[in-house]
Design goal:
Low-confidence stretches: 1-20
Number of helices: 3
CATH class: Mainly Beta
CATH architecture: Sandwich
Keywords: Plasmid
Largest sheet: 8 strands, antiparallel
Mean pLDDT: 81
Shape: globular
Oligomer: single chain
Number of strands: 14
Distance between the termini: 59 Å
């Protein structure tokens, strides 16, 4: 009887711990053109973040922002249209120039809020962050990831609420996953 209770509690604890967040790192090798791509994905009840390097924006001929970027793709579950107030990585605010609605369109700033796209039929919003390794924009992230992991804090407000209905989201990559991503980044992609 006691053994059954211990077994049930153990099952409950492990089942509950799996509800938090799932992290995955994948290396993609394209043999056709000998390219390597590293991807780190975090999913939780709030949505998800996909980090990819290199994201090759030069595959779009009309794109004036050609180059290889570290792409952060944020998908946020919501039933209401949101505006973005700010995004920070481990407490450091992301600059406006790094916030995008798509590969060639920066997020539109209206007053102090960025307009996020919203589709109520699928109840989510999305935005992107691009960092250019050629400019060293990723160096603070890499340094912090090795000791603190990566914590993404997203501050939003419901559209039309005049700043009254704030909604915050947090996505946290563990130290192990963050370190592994940047170790692979350094090993395969920078050298």
């Amino acid at each position: 009887m006691i053994l059954n209770i211990i077994l049930m509690l153990t099952t409950f604890i492990f089942s509950y711990s799996r509800l938090s967040a799932s992290e995955k790192i994948t290396i993609h090798h394209n043999a056709d053109n000998s390219t390597v791509n590293v991807e780190m994905v975090l999913g939780n009840d709030l949505g998800g973040v996909r980090v990819e390097y290199p994201y090759e924006s030069n595959k779009y001929e009309s794109n004036k922002y050609k180059g290889n970027y570290i792409l952060f793709n944020f998908d946020i579950k919501t039933k209401k249209a949101l505006n973005l107030l700010r995004v920070s990585f481990n407490g450091i605010e992301v600059a406006h120039k790094n916030l995008w609605v798509f590969y060639d369109t920066p997020l539109e700033l209206t007053g102090k809020e960025y307009l996020l796209p919203f589709d109520d039929s699928i109840e989510f919003t999305r935005f992107y962050i691009y960092f250019d390794p050629a400019l060293g924009e990723h160096l603070k992230l890499r340094e912090m990831s090795r000791t603190q992991g990566l914590k993404f804090d997203v501050e939003c407000v419901e559209r039309g609420s005049h700043g009254k209905n704030k909604v915050d989201f947090s996505f946290n990559f563990s130290v192990d996953s963050s370190k592994q991503f940047f170790d692979l980044f350094d090993k395969f992609l920078v050298n």
